[in-house]
């Protein structure tokens, strides 16, 4: 709607002008102006014979007898004029002889004289009376109307081509003189730019007296005879304040016709089209051009239209009606102004109310200041943040809320600094609340030129919570929350920094990874709370033990690390590691409990043991693993051999996985005999790896790797299955043998060993009593209760359990008490030295005695010669196994040697 507002205004204005009748006045006023500015010369072909004051004076009587007019016609004929038009009333009779004389003159003129007819209102003013020349004159003359139309403004502008008098068309006097008799057209507009001053005039009296000079002027001219004397009253007002006598007006009309200047207004279609074009121009430019440009465009259009109209009128007898254009243009200009004033005012008010609403509802603080930085706006958000009410702050300096001696931001901030900031840039500064508290504020400032100078606005936000959160997140990302030490990530960064520094000055950096021995047990036995206290105490002890340039980190649950330039540790790295370890000789205080904790340490040094943080961490860990495996409670400095071993181990693991797939494993069987009579009582299944290149590989080389790798389960299962199957086959062949199978640690971890043993027995058909499972101490170590349960279930099945390598571990004796075993296998290390080493003999002897006491079977391994066998037999050991009776051998060989005939084995 708003878009078309100006056009609607224009339409209304035009409608009012047209309906109110002001259109023609405007149009005429513009036309009059153009007449005033243009100037045309008369042709000079029409001469006015003036019945002027001097003629009246000279003739001396009034009204004149018609003989004078008759005489005039004769004189004019003599002067050889072209046309004679008399603008004199001949409608009423005068004295008869005079009339006759005039009629004769007309007749003599050959009927070429034009006499006027005119209409004039009767006295009742309702009807018209037509004044015609008397019949006797009309017979010998041309009739012509001399009526002119007087406009509402009392001015004559139009002139008719003729009129219908009593139903007959009579041409107008000017039309007759111009030779245009056609009954046509509406009245034309007299061209008032033709200057009447140039119309040739001669005095009636001069013609009448036959003044040769006067008559000379009239030769071949058209003449109009009429009254010009003021007292005759035949006068008309025309545009631009000019008054013309009747004959001059008739002459002007005739001149207009003769010069083809019978003006016509352009058609309404032209005006309508022009207005439509103007509307289109405005429609197009309204939003595209500024108001000023539009006004200029409109003014230019007005000038162009007027100039065009002027030019058109100069060249053609056409009067372009520009009045409506000018009205439209004026209204458009007014509407533009209105629009501008409106919009600005409205926008101002809308913006103001919007600003108020936004400012009041904003959660953030919004503060505006004047050019002196005195606060002018203070919203509820600002009150919430700073604690001041608006009335306390309006008019006060902005700097009142800035903590110039702040502590959280880098530099103190003043509002005067805002002037230098780019608009919209966000800064942080220390704010001060009404209670004096200093806190971080985030602010974005803007400045603008207001009505009373430059002003500032600031959106402020209390970011103390955000800052705290960010600090907390940073802390969580970088530190170990339990101990407050840096975490693995941070250590990594620190280590890298230390390495770069060391690289620059040619120094070394040591990394020690410290593992707590048996931390799991502390957690399990004393609970996690105590475990946490221990970890804290350890972190404190480590922190206290390092030089200032060192850094302690917690890497994982029970692992810590120390990164330190070697230049700061004084002695050798070994000595430093030892000191760290020794630091734990004194018990730790965890709550109210004193605990003794041991740590194992692995250490690596930049650049020798690794050039990056990753390499150092990895190698120090390897050294720690080595320490835990070989030097628990001590330290190991990284060496390349550790990594090489690891690599070797990894290669072996891969090879073993491949070997399992290719079925390269094989079970050998070693006989077990009754020492007294050499009777075969059983066989121990012992694994071999038939390596495609290396030949037979003994289990000592690969089982430790198998036992700690993922293929352990698979291989252990295969051993049990294969041995039981073989034992069952021998059983079916009539050989009642005990099959010894070595258990792997992984079989105890799963907890379902008893189930799988039962399944294997069921699958193979081996009697449970023929199966003897051999366990070593390392199997029992990690979960005694679990092992106990499994053993009980296995024994339920009827399967025997014997303790392998008895006497080599730390707690062999205690296990005898804890576990429900069926027998012992005396380790071959005691048996091998039995004959020579009295200690071994004592151990073996007491083991045999112990087993007897406990009701356990006992078998000696590693019997390599007969005398050892005999000694063992004498000592009370009933069973034996060793090279002396047979080496571990493939099943076929075993069958050939021992199962061919059920005989006692002959000892070599
Ligand atoms: P072990 O269970 O104590 O097996 C007895 C070991 O003593 C066998 O070594 C055997 O060849 C060896 N031996 C027997 N008599 C003599 C002797 O007169 N003199 C000497 N010097 N040695 C004798 P092997 O076959 O090399 O096995 C070594 C260890 O590997 C086994 O010790 C056992 O702990 C493990 N092992 C062997 N096979 C398997 C298996 O199938 N599963 C599991 N889990 N471990 C196995
Ligand atoms: Mg064994
Ligand atoms: Mg053994």
Features:
binds magnesium ion; PAS-like_dom_sf; 908 residues; membrane; 7-stranded mixed beta sheet; PAS; 21% strand; Rev_trsase/Diguanyl_cyclase; Beta-Lactamase; transmembrane helix; alpha/beta
Report on the architecture of this protein.
This protein is an alpha/beta fold and 908 residues long. The protein folds into 5 domains: 2-36 and 265-341, no CATH class; 41-260, no CATH class; 362-468, 2-Layer Sandwich (Beta-Lactamase), CATH 3.30.450; 479-638, 2-Layer Sandwich (Alpha-Beta Plaits); 650-899, EAL domain (TIM Barrel). The protein is built from 33 helices and 37 strands. Strands 28-29-31-32-33-34-35-36 form an 8-stranded mixed beta barrel, surrounded by 5 helices. Strands 1, 2, 3, 4, 5, 10 and 11 form a 7-stranded mixed beta sheet that branches. A hairpin with a 2-residue loop joins strand 7 (162-165) and strand 8. Helix 1 packs antiparallel against helix 13, helix 11 (268-285) packs parallel to helix 13 (323-361) and helix 26 packs parallel to helix 28 (784-797). The chain is rod-shaped. One magnesium ion binds next to strand 33. This is EAL domain-containing protein. Keywords: Membrane, Transmembrane, Transmembrane helix. It comes from Bradyrhizobium archetypum.
Brief rundown of the structure:
This protein is of the alpha/beta class.
- Chain-averaged pLDDT: 89
Classify the helix fraction into a percent range: 40-55%
Structural class: alpha/beta
Counted beta strands: 37
- The CATH homologous superfamily of the largest domain is termed EAL domain
> What small ligands are held by the chains?
ligand C2E, magnesium ion
N-to-C terminal Cα separation, in Å? 125 Å
- Give the second-level CATH assignment, the architecture of the largest domain: Alpha-Beta Barrel
